[in-house]
Design brief:
5-stranded antiparallel β-sheet; 12 strands; 280 residues
Length: 280
């Protein structure tokens, strides 16, 4: 058995050491199950073997090409997370779908351009001057900025605007993982001092934790709102001012699964993947 790992475009050098380390990790995890790993740059991907689209970093730099790849993917060459799910998850306007289905999300205002007027509208709606502006199609906190009352508007096209939640400095974000429909581990991510981005690449600190019942309920509501059940998922949650969990992101494309923090170091994920591949 083989699985294809979608890697970045060969020209995408940012964080190369990170995704190359992930390839090595998956090879070590899957080898005992008789599964080989075939890294393929996603722009060069062709239907064939099942593809584990975990490392498609850089897809946000070529969104039209990414969408065309998924739109043309045939039904008889399955991806672990279906193409329809990946397309839906590419644009973070999917958060509006979650909210429409009753899932509590971080309040979000979508704007064609994040100019002064759009920021003023968001500030009035959210009741705060402190905002976070990010692209609707993005990865790894790319082009994400914190904007205060006296800061110039970033004039970012295709933007989403959210209130800055102070809890990110203390409680941080909680990532809850699901494999084959079953809850796995959960990781608390706290930004480095002076930053608000929790990613490892920006110095975020990660700790294995046990989510509480409220966190699990919101995470599973978010999963249930996806167009089809995903094989792997990461649900990022952040508490509001009263401690209630809100969905920051539902990552179904290229999540870092933080298997190095899992109690079994990814053995359960490897077993679930082997079972899935045998079924196909």
């Amino acid at each position: 058995m083989h699985v294809t790992l979608f890697t970045p475009d060969s020209a995408y050098e940012e964080f190369r050491h990170v995704w190359e380390a992930r390839i090595a990790m998956y090879r070590d995890l899957l080898a005992p199950h008789g599964i080989g790993v075939d890294p393929v740059a996603w722009p060069d991907a062709r239907p064939g073997q099942p593809a584990l689209a975990l490392l498609a970093w850089g897809y946000h730099l070529q969104p039209a090409r990414w969408d065309a790849l998924l739109a043309g993917w045939p039904d008889d060459a399955p991806l672990l997370n279906p193409p329809s799910v990946l397309r839906w998850n590419t644009d973070k306007i999917y958060l509006a779908d979650l909210a429409a289905k009753g899932v509590p999300i971080v309040p979000t205002h979508f704007a064609d351009i994040a100019h002064d007027e759009a920021l003023a509208t968001a500030r009035e709606a959210f009741g705060t001057d402190e905002l976070v502006v990010k692209p609707r199609i993005s990865g790894g906190a790319a082009s994400t900025s914190r904007v205060g009352a006296n800061d110039p508007a970033p004039n970012l096209a295709g933007a989403m605007i959210q209130p800055f939640l102070p809890s990110v400095r203390d409680a941080g974000e909680l990532s809850v993982f699901y494999f084959a429909g079953k809850r796995a581990h959960a990781v608390r991510k706290v930004a480095a001092a002076g930053d608000f981005r929790v990613q490892r690449e920006y110095g975020g600190a990660f700790t294995l934790v046990e989510p509480d019942a409220a966190d699990i309920a919101v995470a599973e509501a978010a999963l249930a709102a996806a167009p089809e059940p995903p094989f792997y998922a990461r649900v990022d949650l952040i508490p509001d001012g009263e401690g209630h969990p809100l969905v920051m992101e539902l990552e179904l494309i290229e999540p870092d699964l933080y298997l190095d923090h899992a109690p079994d170091l990814g053995a359960g994920f490897a077993a679930a993947l082997a079972e899935r591949l045998r079924a196909h």
